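Re: [ENG-882] Designed sequences occasionally contain unexpected residues at chain ends

Forwarding the minimal case from QA. Structure tokens:
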């Protein structure tokens, strides 16, 4: 039974899985989108939404420290707190979306594109 078990193991030890997801979150925040497998995309979405929520705190120093617990690079953490999080100040969750993309060459694993949601005001401008 899977009572109170959150997340997938993704066939990796805990340390490797967390480092992989932290690197995926860092790349997503740096580039705005990332292509990965569907299982990883679902886990990435959970972690990325938490990072942006932590970046929305009023105290900038505390927000940067909280984001740096997950994001692996300092410049990306500053970008999350100063550029990405303010875009979503009026939004309560759902900062990322993913689309099924294609099948990976080699093992035919289903892939997906994970991207940050653009606000309607920004799209209109």
């Amino acid at each position: 039974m899977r009572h109170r078990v959150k997340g997938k193991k993704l066939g990796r030890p805990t340390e490797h899985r967390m480092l992989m997801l932290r690197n995926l979150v860092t790349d997503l925040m740096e580039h705005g989108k990332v292509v990965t497998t569907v299982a990883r995309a679902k886990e990435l979405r959970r972690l990325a939404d938490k990072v942006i929520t932590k970046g929305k705190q009023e105290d900038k120093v505390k927000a940067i420290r909280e984001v740096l617990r997950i994001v692996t690079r300092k410049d990306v953490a500053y970008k999350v707190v100063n550029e990405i999080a303010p875009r979503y100040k009026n939004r309560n969750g759902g900062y990322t979306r993913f689309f099924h993309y294609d099948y990976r060459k080699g093992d035919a694993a289903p892939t997906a594109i994970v991207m940050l949601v653009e606000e309607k005001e920004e799209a209109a401008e």
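QA comment: On inspection the terminal residues look reasonable. The CA atoms of residues 55 and 80 lie 6 Å apart. Proposing we downgrade this to a documentation issue.
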